[in-house]
Amino acid sequence: MCIRDSLSRIGVVGWEEIEPYLLAGLVLREPVLLVGAPGTGKTFVAIALGKALGLNYHVYDASKGMFEDIIGFPDYSDGKVRYVPTELSIWERELIFVDEISRASPEMQNKWLEIIRSRSVMGIPVKTLKYIIGGMNPPGYLGVVGIDLALVDRFAWIIRVPNSLDFEKENLREVISTITFMDHLGSETGEDVQKMEELVSFLKEAEDALKKLVNSDIDKKVQDFLIEFPLLVQGTPFEELINNRRLSMMRRCILSYIAVSGLKDIQDIKDTVFKLLPYILPWYAVKIEPIEDYIAVLKERLDPYFEFNTYLKTASLTEMYNKFWEGHTYVLPFLLEKIKKILIEERDDEQNGALMAIAAQMLLELQKRKNELLQMLPPEKIKLIDNLFIDITKDASFEWWEGREVNVKGFPRVKELLEQIVA
Predict the structure, then answer these.
(1) Tens of pLDDT along 313-333?
(2) Over the stretch 97-109, which tens digit does the pLDDT of each residue have?
(3) How far apart are CA 70 and CA 239, in angstroms?
């Protein structure tokens, strides 16, 4: 199952590199955001796809469209609110292109958020809507308001489209010489795009392949890598772009790309993830600088990170603590998890008295050295330490030491330290 140059067959020139990502977005049926300068063909591609797939499509300008145009006229004649469709309304659309999102006012962006997030308007589902494509100019362009992070985070694929400087000369010649259905040469226009049954069939086959990938060995490799991803990007500009929703979207995007590409087996999923990062993170929707240098940094720390991660699973508490203060800040969650396990989950083991004393001392030390930690870690990481203090303080069986033999090594010291934590 493979289809090549499907976009060129509908008149799109120079998008060969990003074509698999756009098709993967269609297969996934999650919102796709096209980021590019004016005149790079975003609107043309959306319309051409609507025609090629034989869909009821419409183009909306988010920066100047009235929301009443989208929902139609309200009708209260039968005692219930319903909306009468017009030529502009959304209710029967199967594909919509929402252009100029980054030029829309915050109020209009909030209204589009519901449509893009849940395919509904004011709580009423748009049942026919299959595909949502957004378009925006990159940050920094004159007139660009910017895009709200809550809105951009609803787009699964964020694809930076090429401009004339990215084209080979042959492609650029073709762009210059081609007359499309949106262009005029006197009274003539270019050839219209007809329904492309081969593309329709390909997307259906890719959707079937995507369903088979769910819970497969490849899916497990993807999930295993993404579980580690938040720690891997800690301290990099990628960290602010990662949340639970984005990680889930990344998994689905990777699987949809594999389905579109027809890949049967992937030995090392990391290469695939790094290849897709510019298109499955909202980097180019909110940042100006190129992403490639930051991806190179991630690749450099990748092998050491996974080696160290494996080591942490068997490392002693003291080893982990020393590693943290040596500058390996991504040790912190592992360290706190181990301290919590020793002080709360394994406290009934009387042989652990000395280890409990060490763990409690380390926790107090982390709390006392907060000023140093603030130079090493962002505030949300400091909060992990505070949360562990709260967990220990709220523990229902906190007076676990009562009645124990005072000569059990370490227990008197543990009691003293934990009383300091509570205080």
Answers:
(1) 677 888 888 888 888 777 787
(2) 999 999 998 888 9
(3) 36
